[in-house]
Amino acid sequence: MQPIRTFNVSPSLPPQLEPLRHLAYNLHWDWNTEAKDLFRRLDRDLWESSRHNPVLMLGLISQARLKEVAEDEGFLAHMERAVRLLDDYLQEGSWYRRHRKPESQECYAYFCAEYGLVDCLPIYSGGLGVLAGDHLKAASDLGLPLVAVGLLYQEGYFAQYLNADGWQQERYPVNDFYNMPVHLERKADGSELLIEVEYPGRKVQARVWRIDVGRVKLYVLDTNIPSNNAYDQDITDELYGGDLDTRIHQEIMLGIGGIRMLKALGYKPTVYHLNEGHSGFLILERIRMLMQEEGLSFTEAKQVAQSTQIFTTHTPVSAGFDLFPADKTMHFVGHYANIYGLSREEFLALGRENPGDLGSPFSMAALALKTSSFVNGVAKLHGVVSRAMFHGLWNGLPLDEVPITSITNGVHARSCVAKSTQELYDRYLGPSWSEKGPEDPLWDKVSAIPDEELWRNHERCRSELVVFARERLVKYLRDRGASAAELAQAEEVLDPKVLTIGFARRFATYKRATLFMRDKERLEKILKANKHRRVQFVIAGKAHPKDLPGKELIRDIIHFTREEGMSHSVVFLPDYDIHVARLMVSGCDVWLNTPRRPREASGTSGMKAAMNGLPNLSILDGWWDEADYVKTGWPIGHGEEYTEDNLEYQDEVEANALYELFEQEVVPIFYDRDSEGLPRGWIAKMKDAIRLNCPFFNTARMVREYATRAYFPAGDRNFVMTQGHYAPAKGLASWKEKVSQQWYQVKVESVDVSTDSHIKVNETVSVKARLQLAGLAPEDVQVELYQGALDPHGQIVNPTTVVMEPQGKDGNQTTIYTGDVVYDSSGLQGLTLRILPKHENLSSPHELGLILWA
Ligand SMILES: *Cc1c(COP(=O)(O)O)cnc(C)c1O
Q1: SS3 for 137-153, per residue?
Q2: How large is the average pLDDT for residues 346-365?
Q3: Which residues carry this modification: N6-(pyridoxal phosphate)lysine (predicted)?
Q4: Fewer CB within 10 Å of terminal CB in the chain, N or C?
Q5: Residue 633 CB–ligand 1 contact under 6 Å
């Protein structure tokens, strides 16, 4: 039955309880423990059954209970404390203000396809979303002027349950936005704010919802409105759902719609951060606006847009990037080529890794890479992998100079550390621990935490996990109609005193969730050969709905748990989400990770575990490769990489290494107790994990790094570029055009070296070069000597560069350059010379991709 009218009924609160609404609608409650406790206190069962959704809870709670707490002085005082904490937080001074001039009118626009903020907003699928959510929380803590853009999915990511055979099934609960902590944005006249985006043959409208994340606002677009046709209503239906067409529809809405939304809301961003390439189309709309509204040419507009764009890539395999066939790309966004005055191939070249390959698809990653002035991977190793993967975009540039750097991921401490553990750190380290970096002396105080207190606290966390695991298993088994015997068994799984290994992540095959059970006999011995030294596993994670091999891994684990006597020691918790993750990373004893190096870009759940004091046990990949993996856990292997035809062998070697670590290290150290029952060696490792990993692998450090290395310089470039109605941008764009045209006529005529092939250490070698600069002036180029030791292939490695100085002209058009090199080590050394473009407003000498070697 279609209604003739619809209403949005909001909860009616007694006036004294109005502040609850204020608290409920700002996600700060997630890391303001007073507020969270308050909602739990209001109605414990509703808090749990609403998936920790205070807005839904306020709508469902009985008037009688509201009346009761409205007269409860203890409750009202608690509420006042929570509200004061929120209000103080919203107003307090900030790191940003201390580091940036107050007059700089900055705004950083952050784009991502998913956000994992709290359990009750299921608009994320995994690591990327949780990272983006943590980025917003930390940006709020630091007071950055950041505004975030995303999509509000009607169905969000799927909920997981398992059938009787252990095969993953998906359910898509429909999100009811009116009962979530999101606000609908309206215009001054009260009507919905709508934005409009062109799609082939039609326009699509979207409404705008706001999510308050502390001081940061996240705006999300929703196309499910009656003015759109049925297909378009479903554009924002499902996160990463549908086919390639759905994907391009979503990415147009995210990128182009996102830019229009910010404009409609009155934002004038100075810096744009693309978190993964899904939002890459935003550059098309920015260039269009700069051309049509500011009167810039295409190259000028592209210059301005690029100077202020930052791109973070999260994928270590090229198959992970969105690729759209050329025709499809033109069908959907080809009208931008007309606006820009570009031919089809010129336009497609913006997103082609090799523009000469006319059959190649349009890559969102290539588009983002080519139009950004700062690009980073998400761990040191991922930076190395990304430079190799995209080396082809910078022809002639040595691999280690490819302008892709890395900023290692982090996690939001106040969101992932168990409440009791936070209180312990607050007590012994002081409340600012969650934001302090590695250089802060506060971390020395970790050793002062009494062993006993740390251990008892951790044991409590483990018990909580066991209780939670039993409840969850029972609930899911009951939902699928399991037998009474199965239910009884589920009520007794796990043992709160036993060494607990945690493994939780997406079930992609490269993550090898079943590596630990490769040799089941040996595993069984480890699990329970010695009844005083037992081991148990808690496992969770979802497979992508279309990833059948991933689902098979889950089924293999479920089947293994059903083998004789296993159900007690190996448990698979269904429907992994932020809540399950938090209980696992605090309640397990060791965090296990077994990806095939180097396929884990960073990984963050291990960081969450480390922050709770857990040692990691992991393949040297992602973040763990750069951690102190000896002091704060155990490395599996030594960072070996294997070729595709050796994967079986790799599994064998690494599973054996894993078993050995269990047998020789993990189990013995855990069960080595002193007279007070404390595992002193284990506790020492826990303290090292806290002392060394907390200060670095957190989003406070990460977002400070984004701010100082990426946002501030891009903001400065924006300030420079826009002066005098974009005069510097126009200057730079026309300079680039000149350099690009002249470049192929630049020549190295001759290079004279002051000595023959034998020199002594510390001897100076003088080099004089004659260069043909064609139509360029000496100030347009940087001439460098490039020298270093030779590898067995005769290639220069670990080079150093020396800038050569121009010494005037030498008759007909050649310019003389000189420079000195001092050799400070012996052996076979090589020397060459190279020329790069130089301009004060370039973000990097490699921005044009031009380089000339002698
Ligand atoms: C932290 C987290 C992730 C990411 O974990 P990885 O170690 O990067 O796989 C995924 N999902 C949830 C719910 C998380 O909390």
Answers
A1: HHHHHHCCCEEEEEECC
A2: 95
A3: 608
A4: N
A5: no
